[in-house]
Amino acid sequence: MTDRPLLPFGSWPSPITIEMAVASSLSLREVRLDGEDVYWTEGRPAEGGRQVIVRWNERDGLVDITPPPFNARTMAHEYGGGWYAVDQGTVYFVNLDDGRIYRQRRDDAPEPLTGEGPYRHGDLVVDRRRNRLLCVREDMSAVAGFVPGGVADGQRVPEPQDLLVAVDLATSAVHVLASGYDFYSTPRPSPDGKHLAWLSWRHPNMPWDSTELQIASVAADGRLADERVVAGGGEESVVQPEWAPDGSLVFASDRTGWWNLYRLTSPAASDRAQIIPLAPMEAEFAAPQWVFGMSWFGIAPDGTIVAASDNKARDELWMIPVRGAPEKLAVPDEVIDS
Protein backbone atom coordinates (compact mmCIF):
# COMPACT_ATOMS: atom_id res chain seq x y z
CA MET A 1 0.00 0.00 0.00
CA THR A 2 1.42 3.39 -1.04
CA ASP A 3 1.77 5.98 1.70
CA ARG A 4 -0.13 9.17 0.94
CA PRO A 5 1.09 12.52 2.27
CA LEU A 6 -1.09 14.40 4.72
CA LEU A 7 -1.96 17.82 3.29
CA PRO A 8 -4.10 20.69 4.60
CA PHE A 9 -7.72 20.73 3.50
CA GLY A 10 -8.12 22.32 0.08
CA SER A 11 -4.52 21.85 -0.98
CA TRP A 12 -4.79 18.36 -2.48
CA PRO A 13 -3.31 18.21 -5.98
CA SER A 14 -5.77 17.58 -8.79
CA PRO A 15 -5.40 17.09 -12.54
CA ILE A 16 -8.61 19.12 -13.01
CA THR A 17 -7.84 22.83 -13.33
CA ILE A 18 -10.22 25.76 -13.04
CA GLU A 19 -9.66 26.44 -16.74
CA MET A 20 -10.78 22.91 -17.60
CA ALA A 21 -13.89 23.23 -15.43
CA VAL A 22 -15.18 26.46 -16.99
CA ALA A 23 -13.75 26.33 -20.53
CA SER A 24 -16.95 25.00 -22.10
CA SER A 25 -19.46 26.87 -19.92
CA LEU A 26 -20.41 29.51 -22.48
CA SER A 27 -23.32 31.59 -21.13
CA LEU A 28 -25.93 33.00 -23.52
CA ARG A 29 -28.20 35.89 -22.46
CA GLU A 30 -30.37 38.78 -23.56
CA VAL A 31 -31.76 37.91 -26.99
CA ARG A 32 -32.63 40.95 -29.15
CA LEU A 33 -34.33 41.08 -32.56
CA ASP A 34 -33.58 43.83 -35.09
CA GLY A 35 -35.06 43.28 -38.52
CA GLU A 36 -33.45 40.16 -39.98
CA ASP A 37 -30.75 40.14 -37.31
CA VAL A 38 -30.72 38.21 -34.04
CA TYR A 39 -28.43 39.45 -31.26
CA TRP A 40 -27.40 37.98 -27.93
CA THR A 41 -24.49 38.17 -25.50
CA GLU A 42 -21.97 35.43 -24.80
CA GLY A 43 -19.99 35.21 -21.58
CA ARG A 44 -16.70 33.63 -22.57
CA PRO A 45 -14.55 32.02 -19.85
CA ALA A 46 -11.64 31.68 -22.29
CA GLU A 47 -11.55 35.49 -22.54
CA GLY A 48 -11.64 36.14 -18.82
CA GLY A 49 -15.44 36.13 -18.71
CA ARG A 50 -15.72 38.93 -21.29
CA GLN A 51 -19.29 39.54 -22.45
CA VAL A 52 -19.41 39.67 -26.25
CA ILE A 53 -22.40 40.84 -28.28
CA VAL A 54 -23.02 38.45 -31.19
CA ARG A 55 -25.13 38.95 -34.31
CA TRP A 56 -26.59 36.28 -36.58
CA ASN A 57 -28.51 36.39 -39.83
CA GLU A 58 -28.91 33.98 -42.73
CA ARG A 59 -26.62 35.99 -45.00
CA ASP A 60 -23.63 36.56 -42.71
CA GLY A 61 -23.97 33.79 -40.14
CA LEU A 62 -22.32 34.47 -36.77
CA VAL A 63 -20.48 37.77 -36.32
CA ASP A 64 -18.82 39.06 -33.13
CA ILE A 65 -19.88 42.67 -32.64
CA THR A 66 -17.95 43.70 -29.51
CA PRO A 67 -14.21 43.81 -30.28
CA PRO A 68 -11.63 43.20 -27.55
CA PRO A 69 -10.89 44.66 -25.09
CA PHE A 70 -14.49 45.94 -24.80
CA ASN A 71 -16.61 44.02 -22.30
CA ALA A 72 -20.35 44.58 -22.80
CA ARG A 73 -21.25 44.32 -19.16
CA THR A 74 -22.40 46.49 -16.26
CA MET A 75 -22.34 46.25 -12.47
CA ALA A 76 -25.30 48.60 -11.96
CA HIS A 77 -27.30 47.36 -8.95
CA GLU A 78 -24.24 45.10 -8.47
CA TYR A 79 -25.89 42.29 -10.46
CA GLY A 80 -25.95 44.12 -13.81
CA GLY A 81 -27.92 42.99 -16.85
CA GLY A 82 -29.69 45.00 -19.54
CA TRP A 83 -26.26 46.00 -20.79
CA TYR A 84 -27.07 46.61 -24.43
CA ALA A 85 -29.76 47.71 -26.88
CA VAL A 86 -29.92 47.55 -30.67
CA ASP A 87 -31.88 49.68 -33.11
CA GLN A 88 -31.71 49.65 -36.92
CA GLY A 89 -28.28 48.06 -36.98
CA THR A 90 -26.70 50.30 -34.33
CA VAL A 91 -25.71 48.73 -31.02
CA TYR A 92 -25.49 50.62 -27.73
CA PHE A 93 -23.69 48.92 -24.88
CA VAL A 94 -22.13 49.56 -21.49
CA ASN A 95 -18.40 48.87 -21.17
CA LEU A 96 -17.44 47.31 -17.85
CA ASP A 97 -14.02 48.92 -17.44
CA ASP A 98 -15.13 52.57 -17.55
CA GLY A 99 -18.93 52.34 -17.09
CA ARG A 100 -19.53 54.48 -20.18
CA ILE A 101 -22.17 53.80 -22.84
CA TYR A 102 -20.76 53.21 -26.31
CA ARG A 103 -22.44 53.45 -29.70
CA GLN A 104 -21.37 51.03 -32.41
CA ARG A 105 -22.81 51.59 -35.85
CA ARG A 106 -22.97 48.60 -38.14
CA ASP A 107 -19.50 47.40 -39.16
CA ASP A 108 -17.85 50.34 -37.32
CA ALA A 109 -15.76 50.55 -34.17
CA PRO A 110 -17.36 51.51 -30.84
CA GLU A 111 -17.40 55.22 -29.95
CA PRO A 112 -18.17 56.66 -26.49
CA LEU A 113 -21.65 58.12 -26.14
CA THR A 114 -21.50 59.23 -22.50
CA GLY A 115 -18.67 61.07 -20.80
CA GLU A 116 -16.36 59.87 -18.08
CA GLY A 117 -17.61 59.86 -14.51
CA PRO A 118 -18.43 57.74 -11.47
CA TYR A 119 -21.43 56.16 -13.16
CA ARG A 120 -22.86 52.75 -13.88
CA HIS A 121 -25.58 52.25 -16.49
CA GLY A 122 -28.10 49.48 -17.11
CA ASP A 123 -31.45 48.58 -18.67
CA LEU A 124 -30.76 50.32 -21.98
CA VAL A 125 -33.69 50.92 -24.35
CA VAL A 126 -33.90 53.13 -27.44
CA ASP A 127 -36.60 55.81 -27.61
CA ARG A 128 -36.57 56.22 -31.37
CA ARG A 129 -39.29 58.87 -31.53
CA ARG A 130 -37.18 61.27 -29.48
CA ASN A 131 -33.79 60.07 -30.71
CA ARG A 132 -32.58 59.19 -27.25
CA LEU A 133 -31.49 56.28 -25.14
CA LEU A 134 -33.32 55.56 -21.88
CA CYS A 135 -31.56 53.79 -19.04
CA VAL A 136 -30.88 53.58 -15.33
CA ARG A 137 -27.84 55.53 -14.14
CA GLU A 138 -26.21 54.71 -10.84
CA ASP A 139 -24.24 57.71 -9.56
CA MET A 140 -21.37 56.35 -7.46
CA SER A 141 -20.10 59.76 -6.28
CA ALA A 142 -21.27 59.25 -2.70
CA VAL A 143 -19.37 55.99 -2.30
CA ALA A 144 -16.15 57.03 -4.04
CA GLY A 145 -13.29 56.45 -1.62
CA PHE A 146 -15.51 54.91 1.05
CA VAL A 147 -13.61 52.57 3.35
CA PRO A 148 -15.62 49.71 4.93
CA GLY A 149 -15.89 50.27 8.66
CA GLY A 150 -15.53 54.00 8.25
CA VAL A 151 -19.06 54.86 9.42
CA ALA A 152 -19.78 55.86 13.00
CA ASP A 153 -22.45 54.10 15.05
CA GLY A 154 -25.93 55.24 14.09
CA GLN A 155 -24.89 56.55 10.66
CA ARG A 156 -25.84 55.01 7.33
CA VAL A 157 -23.31 53.64 4.91
CA PRO A 158 -23.17 55.92 1.84
CA GLU A 159 -25.09 54.55 -1.14
CA PRO A 160 -25.18 55.20 -4.88
CA GLN A 161 -27.95 57.43 -6.20
CA ASP A 162 -30.27 55.74 -8.67
CA LEU A 163 -31.64 57.84 -11.53
CA LEU A 164 -33.80 57.27 -14.58
CA VAL A 165 -32.10 59.20 -17.39
CA ALA A 166 -32.30 59.93 -21.12
CA VAL A 167 -29.17 60.25 -23.27
CA ASP A 168 -29.61 62.46 -26.34
CA LEU A 169 -28.23 60.51 -29.31
CA ALA A 170 -27.41 63.70 -31.23
CA THR A 171 -25.67 65.70 -28.48
CA SER A 172 -24.83 63.05 -25.83
CA ALA A 173 -26.50 65.30 -23.23
CA VAL A 174 -27.87 63.39 -20.24
CA HIS A 175 -31.22 64.46 -18.78
CA VAL A 176 -32.62 63.15 -15.50
CA LEU A 177 -36.20 61.93 -15.94
CA ALA A 178 -36.94 60.57 -12.46
CA SER A 179 -35.21 60.46 -9.08
CA GLY A 180 -36.06 60.01 -5.41
CA TYR A 181 -36.54 56.23 -5.26
CA ASP A 182 -33.74 53.92 -4.16
CA PHE A 183 -34.02 51.80 -7.30
CA TYR A 184 -35.35 52.06 -10.86
CA SER A 185 -35.69 49.59 -13.72
CA THR A 186 -37.43 48.77 -16.99
CA PRO A 187 -38.09 52.14 -18.69
CA ARG A 188 -40.55 51.58 -21.52
CA PRO A 189 -41.75 54.33 -23.92
CA SER A 190 -45.24 53.84 -25.35
CA PRO A 191 -45.61 53.18 -29.11
CA ASP A 192 -46.97 56.68 -29.71
CA GLY A 193 -44.22 58.27 -27.61
CA LYS A 194 -46.69 60.07 -25.35
CA HIS A 195 -46.11 58.04 -22.18
CA LEU A 196 -43.36 56.30 -20.29
CA ALA A 197 -43.72 53.34 -17.94
CA TRP A 198 -41.10 52.12 -15.47
CA LEU A 199 -40.59 50.30 -12.17
CA SER A 200 -39.29 51.73 -8.90
CA TRP A 201 -38.88 50.53 -5.34
CA ARG A 202 -37.38 51.51 -2.00
CA HIS A 203 -35.35 49.98 0.79
CA PRO A 204 -35.68 47.51 2.44
CA ASN A 205 -37.59 45.85 -0.41
CA MET A 206 -35.99 43.70 -3.03
CA PRO A 207 -37.69 43.76 -6.45
CA TRP A 208 -39.47 40.47 -5.68
CA ASP A 209 -40.89 41.93 -2.45
CA SER A 210 -42.52 45.14 -3.61
CA THR A 211 -42.20 47.36 -6.69
CA GLU A 212 -44.34 50.17 -8.06
CA LEU A 213 -45.36 50.39 -11.70
CA GLN A 214 -45.42 54.06 -12.68
CA ILE A 215 -46.66 55.88 -15.77
CA ALA A 216 -46.03 59.49 -16.77
CA SER A 217 -46.91 61.70 -19.70
CA VAL A 218 -44.00 62.78 -21.88
CA ALA A 219 -43.98 66.50 -22.71
CA ALA A 220 -42.80 67.99 -26.00
CA ASP A 221 -39.34 68.64 -24.51
CA GLY A 222 -39.06 65.03 -23.31
CA ARG A 223 -39.64 65.77 -19.63
CA LEU A 224 -42.11 63.74 -17.58
CA ALA A 225 -45.35 65.02 -16.08
CA ASP A 226 -48.34 63.61 -14.20
CA GLU A 227 -46.43 60.69 -12.70
CA ARG A 228 -48.68 58.13 -11.02
CA VAL A 229 -48.50 54.62 -9.62
CA VAL A 230 -50.85 52.27 -11.49
CA ALA A 231 -49.97 48.93 -9.86
CA GLY A 232 -47.72 47.41 -7.23
CA GLY A 233 -46.68 48.68 -3.82
CA GLY A 234 -47.40 47.11 -0.46
CA GLU A 235 -46.65 43.41 -0.80
CA GLU A 236 -47.13 43.33 -4.57
CA SER A 237 -44.22 42.85 -6.94
CA VAL A 238 -44.58 43.93 -10.57
CA VAL A 239 -42.03 42.99 -13.25
CA GLN A 240 -41.56 43.52 -17.00
CA PRO A 241 -44.09 46.13 -18.11
CA GLU A 242 -44.46 46.08 -21.91
CA TRP A 243 -46.66 48.19 -24.19
CA ALA A 244 -49.02 46.31 -26.50
CA PRO A 245 -49.79 47.55 -30.04
CA ASP A 246 -53.24 48.78 -28.94
CA GLY A 247 -51.71 51.11 -26.33
CA SER A 248 -52.49 48.94 -23.31
CA LEU A 249 -49.77 47.97 -20.85
CA VAL A 250 -49.03 44.31 -20.09
CA PHE A 251 -47.11 43.32 -16.97
CA ALA A 252 -46.55 40.46 -14.53
CA SER A 253 -47.68 40.76 -10.90
CA ASP A 254 -47.70 38.44 -7.91
CA ARG A 255 -50.80 40.04 -6.36
CA THR A 256 -52.49 36.61 -6.08
CA GLY A 257 -49.40 34.84 -4.78
CA TRP A 258 -48.56 33.72 -8.33
CA TRP A 259 -46.78 35.82 -10.94
CA ASN A 260 -49.51 36.07 -13.56
CA LEU A 261 -49.96 38.42 -16.51
CA TYR A 262 -52.26 41.45 -16.46
CA ARG A 263 -53.32 44.13 -18.89
CA LEU A 264 -53.81 47.78 -17.92
CA THR A 265 -56.39 49.20 -20.31
CA SER A 266 -56.54 52.93 -21.16
CA PRO A 267 -53.37 53.73 -19.17
CA ALA A 268 -53.49 57.35 -20.29
CA ALA A 269 -56.90 57.89 -18.66
CA SER A 270 -56.76 57.16 -14.93
CA ASP A 271 -60.54 57.38 -14.60
CA ARG A 272 -61.12 54.63 -17.19
CA ALA A 273 -58.08 52.42 -16.62
CA GLN A 274 -58.75 48.82 -15.62
CA ILE A 275 -56.43 45.96 -14.69
CA ILE A 276 -57.56 42.74 -16.35
CA PRO A 277 -56.01 39.33 -15.55
CA LEU A 278 -54.72 37.33 -18.53
CA ALA A 279 -54.56 33.53 -18.32
CA PRO A 280 -54.96 33.32 -14.51
CA MET A 281 -53.56 30.06 -13.16
CA GLU A 282 -51.41 28.63 -10.40
CA ALA A 283 -48.20 29.05 -12.38
CA GLU A 284 -45.36 31.57 -12.46
CA PHE A 285 -45.24 33.73 -15.59
CA ALA A 286 -42.25 35.62 -14.17
CA ALA A 287 -39.53 35.18 -11.58
CA PRO A 288 -37.44 37.29 -9.21
CA GLN A 289 -35.88 40.24 -11.04
CA TRP A 290 -32.29 39.53 -10.06
CA VAL A 291 -30.83 41.57 -12.92
CA PHE A 292 -31.86 44.12 -15.50
CA GLY A 293 -33.11 42.90 -18.86
CA MET A 294 -34.95 39.78 -17.75
CA SER A 295 -37.82 38.78 -20.04
CA TRP A 296 -40.56 36.21 -19.61
CA PHE A 297 -42.94 37.19 -22.42
CA GLY A 298 -43.05 38.97 -25.74
CA ILE A 299 -45.84 40.66 -27.69
CA ALA A 300 -46.28 40.10 -31.43
CA PRO A 301 -47.33 42.94 -33.78
CA ASP A 302 -50.92 41.66 -33.75
CA GLY A 303 -51.04 41.81 -29.94
CA THR A 304 -50.59 38.07 -29.31
CA ILE A 305 -48.56 37.37 -26.19
CA VAL A 306 -46.11 34.48 -26.12
CA ALA A 307 -45.10 33.73 -22.54
CA ALA A 308 -42.98 31.26 -20.63
CA SER A 309 -44.26 29.89 -17.35
CA ASP A 310 -43.06 27.65 -14.56
CA ASN A 311 -45.79 25.17 -13.72
CA LYS A 312 -44.88 22.75 -10.94
CA ALA A 313 -41.17 23.00 -11.78
CA ARG A 314 -41.81 22.47 -15.50
CA ASP A 315 -41.28 25.24 -18.05
CA GLU A 316 -44.16 25.75 -20.47
CA LEU A 317 -44.77 28.05 -23.42
CA TRP A 318 -48.17 29.74 -23.78
CA MET A 319 -49.81 31.76 -26.53
CA ILE A 320 -52.33 34.31 -25.25
CA PRO A 321 -54.35 35.91 -28.06
CA VAL A 322 -56.00 39.29 -27.79
CA ARG A 323 -59.32 37.48 -27.96
CA GLY A 324 -59.91 33.86 -27.17
CA ALA A 325 -58.57 31.30 -24.74
CA PRO A 326 -54.88 30.86 -23.92
CA GLU A 327 -53.22 27.89 -25.62
CA LYS A 328 -50.28 25.87 -24.32
CA LEU A 329 -47.78 25.25 -27.12
CA ALA A 330 -46.30 21.81 -27.54
CA VAL A 331 -42.54 22.36 -27.57
CA PRO A 332 -39.76 19.85 -26.83
CA ASP A 333 -37.72 22.28 -24.74
CA GLU A 334 -37.44 21.69 -21.02
CA VAL A 335 -35.87 25.05 -20.12
CA ILE A 336 -37.23 28.29 -21.59
CA ASP A 337 -35.58 31.64 -20.92
CA SER A 338 -35.24 35.18 -22.30
Description of the structure:
The chain has 338 residues and is mainly β. It has one helix spanning 18-22, and strands at residues 27-34, 37-44, 50-57, 61-64, 84-87, 90-94, 101-104, 111-112, 119-127, 132-139, 161-168, 174-178, 183-189, 195-201, 212-218, 224-232, 238-243, 249-253, 260-265, 274-278, 297-299, 305-311, 314-320, 327-329. The protein is 1% helix and 43% strand. It has a four-stranded antiparallel beta sheet with strand order 1-2-3-4, with no helix packed on it. A four-stranded antiparallel beta sheet has the order 5-6-7-8, with no helix packed on it. A four-stranded antiparallel beta sheet has the order 9-10-11-12, with no helix packed on it. Strand 11 and strand 12 (174-178) form a beta hairpin. The longest helix is centred in the first third of the chain and has 5 residues, at 18-22. It is globular.
Secondary-structure blueprint of this entry?
Blueprint: H1 18-22, E1 27-34, E2 37-44, E3 50-57, E4 61-64, E5 84-87, E6 90-94, E7 101-104, E8 111-112, E9 119-127, E10 132-139, E11 161-168, E12 174-178, E13 183-189, E14 195-201, E15 212-218, E16 224-232, E17 238-243, E18 249-253, E19 260-265, E20 274-278, E21 297-299, E22 305-311, E23 314-320, E24 327-329
Antiparallel strand pairs: 1-2, 2-3, 3-4, 5-6, 6-7, 7-8, 9-10, 10-11, 11-12, 13-14, 14-15, 15-16, 17-18, 18-19, 19-20, 21-22, 22-23, 23-24
User: What is the helix tally?
Assistant: 1
Strand pairing plus helix content: what structural class? mainly beta
One letter per element, helices H and strands E, the order comes to: HEEEEEEEEEEEEEEEEEEEEEEEE
Q: Estimate the global geometry from the Cα principal axes.
A: globular
The total of beta strands comes to 24
Placed side by side, the strands forming the largest sheet appear as 1-2-3-4
Helix content: under 10%
Main beta-sheet annotation:
4 strands, antiparallel
Kindly report the average pLDDT value: 93
Low-confidence stretches: none
Oligomerization: single chain
Terminal CA distance:
55 Å
Radius of gyration: 22 Å
